[in-house]
Design goal:
Layout: H1 3-17, H2 28-41, H3 60-70, H4 81-94, H5 97-108, E1 114-117, E2 133-137, E3 140-148, E4 158-164, E5 175-181, E6 187-192, E7 201-212, E8 216-217, H6 223-240, H7 254-258, H8 266-294, H9 302-325, H10 335-342, H11 353-364
Parallel strand pairs: 1-4
Antiparallel strand pairs: 2-3, 3-7, 4-5, 5-8, 6-7
Helix pairs in contact: 1-3, 4-5, 4-6, 6-9, 8-9, 9-10, 9-11
Length: 388
């Protein structure tokens, strides 16, 4: 099928199958799972993922074509965004064949929801300072600790958990990655309300939670390299908006703002042109990264640049919408007020803008690095939260 035919087929399927925004009652998670199963069975979930693990085995061209057609619809896929954009790709890249067989297809069909368990109260941007412990007990690991700012954890069936397994070595070298059952006794999830009034994040507690060694991802004490894989996928997926459709249109986008502001004012037009330029530049940058990935060139630290550009664009849009629509735009429970209130989160989640700039400076531009602590110091001898 050529690309034009693929787009027509995708458009027709979306028109027939995307549920209405305003269906009353029922369980929204159940509806989302039903939709994901239909999406997968129609060939539109995991478009570029390997066929062996439940994907479609197609190219970035088909994925971009489907994304372009889907922009006009509200896809109920947000609850799957962590699995589709972060944990699933990590399992495909770093998991065992048994893990891929068990987890990837159910993830793509929406049968199971995933979360990512990295950040802690004392380890946000400096993830390697985390203190959640996993101790070996025969063919299991026993986990104790706390995670925070965990998206969709209150709906999740499984989580990708980074835990400390050795305190006698430097902090980056004593970490191991696991798949954890979020329904197991000893896992407690508590939603956190943010400034939008909604609970998009959670704190998660682990009290003597056993994890079988077969759910370990990568080698013991090599969790940092697995985490880097996840973080690279995270930043690329955030910048590209993978699985994050929550409404038909972003109320701070150029198209939305043009309908509510005075486009006859040349100063307003100048602002909108600037928004168009920034939006287009990010879209082209993401397209370039996708094409390079398809050609076998992994974007590496440039994924951090894409995430930084999106965070800055999001804040620019929110600020512009507030200035053009007026202060009342931030009041009430309208889609615009929600988008403006949520905008600052983009400069924090997935790594702060400051951390992204450091990564781009160090690893893309090869600028002189900032002073760092001695990375040979064992974790047990470090002051908690020490950067480096």
């Amino acid at each position: 099928m050529n690309l034009a035919d693929y787009r027509r087929s995708a458009r027709a399927w979306l028109q027939e199958n995307v549920p209405a925004d305003d269906r009353p009652g029922g369980d929204p998670i159940a509806r989302a799972k039903e939709f994901m199963a239909k999406l997968h069975d129609a060939g539109y979930s995991g478009i570029t993922w390997p066929r062996r693990w439940g994907g479609q085995g197609l190219t970035q061209a088909e994925e971009r074509a489907f994304a372009a057609e889907a922009r006009g619809f509200t896809l109920p896929t947000y609850v799957f965004s962590i699995g589709l954009g972060m944990t699933g790709p990590t399992l495909v890249d770093r998991g065992t064949d048994a893990q891929r067989e068990r987890f990837v297809r159910p993830l793509l069909r929406g049968e199971e929801i995933w979360c990512q368990l990295f950040s802690e109260p004392g380890a946000g941007s400096d993830v390697a300072s985390l203190q959640t412990r996993a101790e070996r007990d025969g063919d299991h690991w026993i986990v104790n600790g706390q995670k925070v700012w965990t998206s969709v954890a209150h709906h999740a069936d499984w989580g990708l958990l980074l835990a400390r397994t050795d305190v006698e070595v430097p902090k980056h070298k004593g970490l191991t990655m696991f798949v954890v059952d979020m329904h197991h006794p000893g896992v407690t999830v508590r939603p956190l309300k943010d400034m939008t009034g909604r609970s998009n994040f959670n704190e998660v507690f682990f009290d003597d939670v056993p994890i079988p060694d077969e759910h370990r991802v990568g080698e013991v004490n090599d969790g940092w390299s697995v985490a880097v894989t996840t973080l690279l996928h995270e930043r690329l997926s955030i910048s590209a908006g993978v699985g994050m459709s929550g409404q038909k249109e972003d109320p701070t986008s150029l198209e939305a703002l043009r309908r509510v502001v005075d486009t006859g004012d040349p100063l307003v037009r100048d602002e909108l042109v600037e928004l168009h330029i920034r939006s287009r530049a990010l879209a082209l940058f993401n397209q370039r990264l996708a094409q390079e990935t398809e050609a076998g060139i992994f974007p590496g630290a440039r994924g951090s640049a894409a995430k930084l550009l999106l965070a800055e664009l999001t804040m620019f849009q929110a600020d512009l919408a507030t200035r053009l629509a007026g202060p009342e735009a931030v009041l009430g429970d309208s889609p615009l007020a929600h988008a403006i209130s949520l905008a600052p989160a983009m400069s924090l989640g997935g790594g702060t803008n400051e951390i992204m700039r450091n990564i781009v400076g160090d690893r893309v531009l090869n600028l002189p690095p900032e002073p760092r602590v001695d990375k040979t110091v064992p974790f047990k001898d470090l002051k908690v939260g020490t950067q480096g």
